[in-house]
Write a structure and sequence with these properties.
The chain contains 19 helices and no strands. By secondary structure, the protein is mostly helical. It is elongated, with a radius of gyration of 59 Å.
């Protein structure tokens, strides 16, 4: 099916005067079109590009069909007789004429087609230039509007910042004025009511400390649980190898420990026998002078500790009425000791408050409550020494002054305090070797009880503390003890366990025991004794104490004999031995003899 557009009326003179019969297009009998029809079809295509509708111009007598449905069914061609030479020549002439007709070129139609193309090209160019100009103008307007808005926003921002700065300055000025007024009001208020709310503050502080301790304990347990969970997988992979190594290490340590304990036990037995023989020879003169042995002091302190438990703490805990007042007073005492600073006013205030708690005016405490509070006070002082004095030596001075004030004012505190010291650090405050039996004649059950009698504590995880932790605790408590001995009493002497001559007894007993001197703890405690009271003892006892210093110096340089050295061969013992030697030299340099 073919489509073509009708030809427009031509302005050519030749076309106007052409025979009308010639202007009519002859139908094509062979399905071919003339050159003018070809040009018209090209023009029609061009016009279709411009968007104009293209009508159907196919002739009714064309060699084409209107649709596929009109296509005739091809029948079987019938055989025709061959054409003659004349017919064949006629056909060829007709075809040649048709070809000439189709190849005819019309200049006007060509010119008309070119004019249409030029017009369309010019129109498209003008339209493109106009559109570019419009877009350029629109972009310029947009840029100018953006600049204007940016400048307006910048100006608004500057004004807003200036306004905020002004408001901030006004707010700061108001806050400063309010702070000054509040500080003035608070100062006046606290000056009026400080005395009346001090006790309540202490109770609240004790409660906060307890809550903080519980919270820290909970957080610590959570961290330990998380750490345990994180390490579980790795621990499972290494468990078998670690167990094998631990078993070998435990076996080796047990063998070494058993060998060392056996050697120490034999040396202690031998030394105890020598000391027993010496004490028997001196028994009569010692009784005449009212002196006691180190074993007697140990048994007496153990007996006092048992009396405190049976007649004090246990009775109070069994009685609800006693327990409430004892618990409240105990927490107050612990808080007071924890608030202590190196200030004379603070020391006197804390001392008087603690004494007031144990000796309230007009209403004395029941004996069991009083005894239990003496034990609580002694424990609070010792725990403070184990923590604070271990970290800072200077904190021993105010703590010792408070302890001295309480010992001077509170009856029975001397016996309880010394008994609690022996409970916390073993026989180092006496000093003596651990007896084979307790004060009631009962033998020790196992090695765990023996270590507990020496003062070793169990950690939060149930394991025993390390040797370093034990040594630090012993040093802190003994520094407190020697600091109390150093204070000169103003009213009257304290109990014999807290008098200055006790220092000489302590030094003589320690130097007489090679087993204690050959341990790292013995060297550390000896250094503490020399550092706290060495110079004071030299001033009091003069040349007699110089002899003791000479023995100590020889022990630190030449050893103790029988292959033993002061402080032993461990790294801590070697360091302690060096400090003892330097301290003896320092004391002798400052001596004025």
């Amino acid at each position: 099916m073919r489509f073509s557009a009708p030809r427009s009326p031509s302005t050519s003179p030749e076309r106007k005067h052409r025979n009308p019969l010639a202007q009519r297009r002859s139908p094509s009998t062979f399905g071919l079109i003339s050159s003018s029809e070809s040009e018209l079809d090209e023009g029609s295509d061009f016009e279709s590009d411009t968007g104009e509708p293209v009508p159907d111009s196919s002739d009714s007598d064309s060699f084409c069909y209107g649709s596929e449905s009109e296509e005739p069914v091809h029948m079987k061609e019938k055989q025709t007789p061959p054409r003659s030479t004349r017919e064949q020549s006629h056909i060829e002439d007709t075809i040649a004429a048709i070809r000439l007709r189709t190849r005819h070129h019309d200049p006007f139609e060509e010119w008309e087609k070119e004019m249409r193309k030029d017009s369309l090209r010019a129109a498209r160019k003008n339209h493109s230039e106009a559109e570019v100009q419009f877009l350029r103008h629109q972009n310029q307007r947009r840029i100018e509007e953006s600049r204007r808005l940016a400048a307006a926003f910048k100006q608004d921002e500057i004004q807003l910042i200036q306004k905020l700065d002004g408001l901030r300055l006004q707010q700061q000025a108001r806050e400063q004025t309010l702070r000054e007024k509040l500080a003035e009001r608070s100062g006046t208020l606290w000056n009026r009511i400080e005395a009346s709310i001090k006790l309540e503050q202490d109770q609240k502080q004790a409660k906060l400390d307890e809550e903080r301790r519980v919270r820290e304990e909970t957080e610590r347990k959570l961290r330990e649980e998380a750490e345990k969970t994180r390490r579980e997988e790795q621990r499972q992979r290494e468990e078998e190898e670690r167990k094998r190594r631990e078993e070998d290490e435990v076996r080796r340590k047990r063998e070494e420990e058993a060998r060392r304990i056996q050697e120490e036990k034999e040396a202690a037995i031998q030394e105890a026998k020598q000391q027993e023989n010496r004490l028997k020879a001196e028994e009569e003169s010692r009784k005449a002078a009212g002196m006691t042995t180190s074993e007697d002091d140990w048994k007496q302190s153990r007996k006092n500790l048992q009396l405190v438990k049976t007649q004090g703490t246990r009775l109070v805990k069994a009685n609800p009425a006693f327990r409430s007042s004892w618990s409240s007073a105990r927490r107050t005492i612990t808080a007071k000791v924890g608030q202590l600073t190196n200030d004379v006013e603070t020391i006197n205030r804390v001392s008087s408050q603690i004494i007031g708690i144990l000796r309230p005016a007009g209403n004395p405490l029941p004996p069991p409550v009083y005894t239990a509070l003496l034990s609580a006070l002694a424990k609070a002082l010792i725990l403070q020494a184990e923590t604070e004095i271990t970290a800072e030596k200077r904190s021993a001075v105010p703590l010792a002054q408070v302890a001295f004030n309480c010992l001077d004012q509170l009856e029975g505190l001397s016996e309880v305090f010394f008994a609690k010291i022996t409970q916390r650090i073993g026989p180092w405050a006496i000093p003596c070797l651990l007896p084979e039996t307790d004060f009631d004649g009962r033998s020790w059950t196992d090695n765990a009880e023996i270590r507990r009698m020496h003062g070793f504590r169990l950690g939060e995880d149930g394991a025993s503390e390390t040797q370093t932790q034990y040594t630090d605790r012993v040093k802190g408590v003994m520094r407190l003890y020697f600091s109390v001995l150093k204070i000169t009493p103003k009213r009257g002497p304290l109990s014999k366990m807290f008098q200055l001559p006790r220092y000489w007894t302590w030094m003589a007993r320690l130097l007489a025991s090679r087993s204690m001197l050959s341990s790292a703890v013995g060297a550390e405690v000896l250094f503490v004794a020399l550092e706290v009271l060495g110079a004071e003892a030299l001033r009091i006892w003069g040349y007699q104490f110089v002899k003791i210093l000479r023995l100590i110096y020889d022990a630190s340089t030449e050893g103790l004999g029988n292959g033993k050295v002061l402080g032993g061969t461990s790294p801590d013992g070697i360091a302690a031995r060096a400090r003892v030697k330097l301290e003896v030299e320092s004391i002798m340099k400052g001596a004025d003899i």
